[in-house]
Amino acid sequence: MKNINLTIDDNPLSVPEGTTIMKAAETIGVYIPRLCYVPDLGIEGACRICIVEVEGFRNYQTACSTKVTEGMKVKTNSPAIRQARRDLVELILDNHPMDCQTCERDGNCELQDLAYSMGVRERLFAGQRKHFEVDNSSFSVVRNSDKCILCHRCIRVCAEVQGVTNLGQMHRGVNTVVGPAHLVAMKDSVCINCGQCINVCPTAAFLEKGATDEVWAALADPKKHVVVQIAPSIRATIGEGFGEAPGTAETGRTVTALRRLGFDAVFDTNFGADLTIVEESEEFINRLKCNGVIPGGAKSDDHDTHPCVLPMFTSCSPGWVSFMEHFYPEMIPHMSSCRSPMSMQSIILKTFYARKTGLDPKDIYVVAIMPCTAKKYEMRRPELCDEEGNPYTDAVLTTRELVWMIKAYGIDFKQLHEEDFDNPLGSSTGAADIFGTTGGVMEAALRTAAEKITGKPLDDLNFYNVRAVTGYKEASINIAGIEVNIAVVNGLNNAKKILEKVKSGEKQYHLIELMACPGGCIGGGGQPYPADGRYVLNKEVLEKRAASLYKIDADKKIRKSHENPYIQQLYQQFLQHPGSEIAHELLHTTYAPREPRGIK
Fold it and tell me: Are residues 303 and 346 in the same domain?
């Protein structure tokens, strides 16, 4: 590749052709301020904060979008440039709410940091300020346009990564606003509740729908038996909320912190993940038999809604489920009917656990700590509520919300000792831990399905060819001489590519794992904002989080879901056998086409 020679701030350098000024400057330790720029999204050039002087150009150039040319001379820090950038930041601030001390992003706001670093100490401009009503209609995502700085990050991530294109810019001037088409309420739009708009927003224009007040109230209610479950990925990400490096495993301290907060019992959603694998592998094998892929013939249980449809899609990601119901409803028969691990765990708590402890299910308050804002939507799906319409999961907190609660309670997280989960719903296998990263559900399912099909232990439990942090992977797995075609997908624009191949007949798969968020749950819409200024979409961050989960898996004595002794006891004492009538009633669900209600 051809190299380009240029100077930046009188420093000569040579970079590959096609490099932007911003990237070139970083190679010599020059950081050019920015707001709208995100490395993994398209270039927008909307904020103008990254302007630089280029010799021969009358106007300032944006460093994020301008590519270097031979002999280019760039100034990134002249007095004129510094003043122009500060003026731009001041203009943004003077159209921004003056509530930093009470804002959820106080202390973790890119606009706040930028204003500080540029020496903005007063508001110099006055004029009409925008004002829009807060859209609090969604179960998952709150949109506050007063705090929007029109960087368009949310628009780009929704379109480029998730393929939903729910957000766009409307109107002009002081009335310019970002929102769903026709500015319908978020709950009535095609929003899939994934929360990636929250992850990339530099201010607080998008936030998760908070549930901390409800949880504090439950913990203070002596009549409530308040239990909590934590998702697999939480243990690999929560430490970042306390300044630890990405991928620092903090299972034991998280359990201790939850007990300090006052929870009566601390359980592990990993138990629900093991249960999911046992049920899902049974369903998958049944579909393989029905299609003649493996011998035996399909079971004819009346409750087996779609026993013969291949490929089977995994159904653990509520953002993906919502996406499918909105955009690919004709493919609903491909969905596994299994509930997610969170939903399975919650209903077992309100049934088996209630019976075992002698508690009234109405007195048990189930809190789920999830990496995913879409779980707040999932818990309220009518299909996942009891006959009276009450959710089996009473509240969902994101990782970020739990971090705040721990800090608010005065708990020094790093100084805590490590404790274990409560049993029986706190015991899990290594297969459950890897649910938190893309490819993990597939690998866990294959460990169990392969042994059930062959009747023999696997020589190697590691399915490296389905491990993928970004994009999608395809592979063929040989099970007892049978080639099983699989695919692993994360990020819904990638899901579109796979789904179109399935629809056209270009590809024939048997099993597809789909996760809405980049990297899977480790990149969920409720995960901590990386403390070092990197973005949640950053591949390095995601890889470190994933590696942490794979290490936890590798270090466990039991690494196959069906070998979890507490899962085996649950079937013996309560569920009878995988795929039984009671198992199907409690652990499976249905899906239906959905249309945005605000647009006809």
Answer: no
Catalytic residue among 250, 283, 443, 451: 283
- Identify whether 378 is a catalytic site residue: yes
Q: Is 336 a catalytic residue?
A: yes
Task: Read off φ and ψ for residue 465, nearest 5 degrees.
Answer: -75, 0
Residue 86 counted as domain residue:
no
For the record, the structure tokens of 438 come out as 């893309």
What stretches in the chain show pLDDT beneath 50? 300-303, 598-600
Q: Is 383 a catalytic residue?
A: yes
Same domain, 552 and 449: yes
Select which of 44, 250, 279, 378 is catalytic. 378
Q: Do 513 and 373 have their domain in common? A: no
Question: Is the Cβ–Cβ distance between 370 and 393 less than 8 Å?
Answer: no
**Residue tagged active-site, from 145, 240, 521, 548:** 521
Q: What is the CATH number of the domain that holds 410?
A: 3.40.50.1780
Which of 336, 428, 561, 580 is catalytic? The answer is 336
Answer for the pair 446, 510: CB distance below 8 angstroms, yes or no.
no
* pLDDT, tens only, 467-524: 876 788 999 999 888 899 999 999 999 999 999 999 999 999 999 999 999 999 999 9
Q: What is the pLDDT of residue 288?
A: 94
Residues 434 and 520 in one domain: yes
- Please pick, among 187, 289, 375, 376, the residue that the annotation labels catalytic: 375
Domain assignment of residue 84, yes or no: no
52-97 tens-digit pLDDT? 999 999 999 999 999 999 999 999 999 999 999 999 999 999 999 9
Residues 170/119, Cβ–Cβ less than 8 Å: no
CB 399 within 8 A of CB 237: yes
pTM of model > 0.85 = yes
Start-to-end Cα distance in the chain = 52
Annotated active-site residue in 17, 383, 418, 483: 383
What are φ and ψ of residue 208, in 5° steps? -70, 150
**So what's the pLDDT on residue 40?**
85
d(CA 549, CA 237): 10
